[in-house]
Amino acid sequence: MPLVTVTTCSDLTEALVLRSRLEAAGVPAFLPEMHHLSTAWHLTLAVGVRLQVPEAYRGEAEILLSEWRQEPPAEEAAQDRCPRCRSTDIHQQKSWLAGLLALLAVMVPLPVKTGKLLCRACGHHWRDAREA
User: Fold this and answer.
1) What pLDDT does residue 23 have?
2) Chain centroid, CA 12 distance in Å
């Protein structure tokens, strides 16, 4: 039975959680690149992690995935918001200069969190109070 990709996750952890939830609901699910990406984790940035199901289960898997994506996470009530526009579409900025220093030190490019947040909706920058 041919497999079809129902979603592509941004990291292996998210893909493993979704696969487990599908399997618990009775839908067989597979992560074809799981072992490759667990050792070459940096490739997830380029290709993502495909979550596949048998073609006969495609509709059921897509319904379950869409329902789960509509569920607000438990921590959403305490989710960060932009102080200017109250948007939740914010991004934790990383310092590529510190990442470059890490590359020189250990030969692995590691972006380092700066404690600064960016609102993607209005462009406002501010410091995370929890980082202080």
Assistant:
1) 95
2) 8
Q: What is the predicted pLDDT for the residue at 131?
A: 60
Residue 29 near residue 18 (C-beta atoms within 8 A): yes
Q: Give the closest residue to 80 by CA, choosing from 119, 23, 25, 121.
A: 119
Cα 14 to Cα 56: distance, rounded to the nearest angstrom: 23
Query: Which segment of 64-68, 89-93, 108-112, 126-130 scores lowest on mean pLDDT?
Result: 108-112
**Helix or strand holding residue 85 (H, E):** none
101 conformational bin, left if phi > 0, alpha if psi -120 to 50, beta if neither: alpha
What is the token pair recorded at 77? 């009530």
pTM: 0.53
Structure tokens at 88: 């939740």
| Residue 73 pLDDT greater than 80, yes or no | no
Contacts of 119 (CB under 8 A, 6+ apart): 82, 84, 85, 87, 89, 90, 125
The gap from C-alpha 115 to its chain's centroid, in whole angstroms, comes to 19
